[in-house]
Write a structure and sequence with these properties.
Length: about 600
């Protein structure tokens, strides 16, 4: 029996002047679908998501949502007008007694619900919007760049939370690892049309490349046929004018169809050129420490970076990654210890706050003279690695149109602002690149190109990122900051760091088990020969975290119910929380029984 679609779009078209954003688009979202929505920056992904959410009315076509279905939309820049705190916004729309759901999400995502919306950062506002979407428990979640401004711990929490939900969801994200872990199908928006592949994001690039290859072949065949028919029209039509009018009309239709094809946008013409080589030593930090008030950012940390090294800084938001980065490049002084820089350094900086850009300046003005970006130019030219180029031509290399050249920076999307900064950085020679969150808002193709360029770059790279895939592709050394003043150096990227801490944990577990004389600490779950299946072994490892989460939820619910006046003043809220408490106690009991059964089998 066919299932009723959760959401259906039929023949949706939308134009904001120029080429259509959406052109006769059809889509069906089934209950429980886990979809990646991908496409170039500017292709209309966010616009399509707003159509799905019912926030934008298309020029034509229909949006169908069955009775009883609900949709929650998390946008990139949520409007919190009228809400005093982030928590006030996050709980809006919830049933009485469900505030604890926002508290749980706030804890996992790392924001304070009591923070004022007026002073909250863009990242905090986005996390509150994400918490609201999760707490609403809709039939379908529409998440537009949910991992932007989240640290790796929060991304991991969100990944686990979404993997457990029964709701359907559609995600726009640049985070490959996040999409690969969660999605089972892919929607690809390309030149106004939407294609679907019933495989997760991990298979997207091969599918995209094959589609483009087939498209290029079909276009080549059409061009040859038009050329052949055009020759016939000139040479053979006069003798058989009446009988061949149909063939002439077919030729005209082929030419019109070919002219109507929207040309595929190319990749940005990025290029990185290292300047003269720096000295062998780039940075030498010895025993550096830093505190802000009572907060210890770093204590007694030493690091030497040599020419050509690829160093990544990772850790939770607020752990001090940007502070350490600024100390390493001489922008900020440590409280104790010394930092000495090498000779002949030509530094280019990508600032996560985009502070090198001025909202009121045009793209033209930004590239023809910007001291903060370190580029120079005059009138209509920009100096690109020592050679003058017309500013519009250079902007086109980074996929900006003629019209955008005179537009203000504030009109750009996040991805376009990132590309503009990259245009500035790549206009000059450098031998040390400092990249603070460079991957935010960039599309997959631009990220691919940036990674390739960094791989070939004959200089030193220091970067801060929460993108696990990007870290794995670029970093040769990873510095992990946990927010307690400690910074630990690991060889390799993110996956290498994870493998090393797991190996260390296993070694410590084996040592503990040996010293305990083979007592229960020597868990069979940590050995490959447990008698459990792979799925059961994985379940045994994850159950303790699930039990701890349920215990924390029960404690919060019991705290709320401890209010003696709750039943009298808010009986509906009391009933809702009581039901939730019973449900979690039952689930906790089931999890504990499952854990004990698996533990017994593993120890048999």
């Amino acid at each position: 029996m066919a299932r009723t679609p959760l959401l259906q779009l039929s023949n949706i078209s939308l134009t904001f002047g120029g080429d259509p954003i959406l052109d006769g688009l059809d889509a069906i979202v089934q209950p429980g679908d886990r979809l990646a929505l991908v496409g170039r920056n500017g292709s209309g992904k966010s616009t399509l998501m707003k159509v799905m959410a019912g926030l934008i009315e298309p020029d034509s076509g229909t949006r169908t949502l069955p009775a009883g279905a609900s949709v929650a939309y998390m946008e990139q820049h949520p409007d919190m007008s009228g809400y005093k705190t982030l928590g006030d916004f996050a709980v809006s729309g919830l049933e009485p007694g469900q505030d604890y759901l926002v508290e749980q999400a706030a804890e996992g995502l790392g924001f304070n619900p009591d923070s004022a919306t007026a002073t909250a950062s863009g990242g905090e506002r986005r996390r509150a919007a994400l918490a609201r979407s999760l707490a609403l428990a809709p039939s379908l979640m529409l998440l537009d760049e949910p991992t932007n401004h989240l640290d790796i711990h929060a991304i991991t929490w969100l990944e686990r939370r979404l993997s457990e939900t029964r709701a359907g969801f559609i995600i726009i994200s640049h985070d490959r690892a996040f999409l690969r872990a969660l999605t089972r199908a892919t929607l690809w928006l390309d030149r106004g049309t939407l294609r679907r592949q019933n495989q997760g994001f991990g298979e997207f690039e091969a599918w995209r490349d094959k589609t483009w290859e087939d498209e290029d072949m079909a276009r080549h065949k059409l061009d040859r046929r038009i050329k052949s028919e055009g020759r016939w029209a000139v040479e053979g039509i006069s003798a058989r004018r009446k009988r061949n009018q149909g063939r002439v009309r077919a030729l005209q239709e082929m030419r019109a169809g070919r002219a109507a094809q929207i040309r595929r946008q190319g990749t940005a013409s990025m290029a990185l050129e290292a300047g003269p080589k720096s000295g062998r030593k780039v940075v030498d930090a010895v025993g550096i420490s830093k505190t802000y008030g009572d907060k210890v950012i770093l204590k007694d940390f030493s690091l030497r970076i040599n020419r050509g090294d690829r160093v990544a800084l990772v850790g939770p938001n607020g752990a001090g990654k940007t502070t350490l980065l600024n100390m390493l490049i001489g922008k900020e002084k440590p409280d104790a210890g010394t930092v000495s820089l090498g000779t002949g350094l030509e530094l280019a900086l990508f600032d996560q706050n985009r502070s090198q850009l001025k909202d009121d300046a045009t793209l033209w003005e930004t590239l023809t003279g910007n001291a903060e970006l370190g580029i120079s130019g005059k009138a209509d030219q920009v100096m690109v690695r020592g050679q003058p180029k017309h500013v519009v031509g250079y902007l086109k290399e980074f996929l900006f149109s003629d019209a955008q050249a005179r537009a203000p920076v504030r009109s750009l999307s996040g991805g376009e602002k990132a590309r503009l900064i990259l245009a500035g950085i790549m206009a000059r020679q450098s031998n040390i690149l400092v990249l603070d969150e460079p991957t935010n808002d960039l599309d997959v193709e631009t990220l691919d190109l940036l990674q390739d360029l960094l791989g070939d770059y004959d200089g030193t790279v220091i970067l801060v990122s929460h993108d696990r895939d990007f870290l794995d592709r670029i970093a040769a050394t990873t510095i992990v900051m946990e927010g307690d003043g400690e910074a630990t150096i690991y060889a390799g990227g993110w996956s290498d760091y994870q493998a090393q801490i797991k190996s260390t944990a296993k070694a410590e577990q084996a040592k503990t088990a040996k010293s305990a004389g083979g007592a229960k600490a020597k868990s069979k779950a940590a050995t490959p020969d447990t008698g459990l299946s792979y799925v059961e072994t994985h379940r045994l490892k994850t159950l303790p975290d699930e039990i701890a989460r349920l215990e924390a939820e029960i404690a919060k619910l019991e705290t709320v119910l401890s209010d003696a006046d709750l039943f009298t003043n808010e009986p509906k809220k009391f009933a809702t929380i009581s039901d939730a408490l019973v449900e979690r106690h039952n689930k906790l009991s089931d999890c504990e029984e499952e854990w004990m059964a698996l533990e017994d089998r593993a120890g048999a």
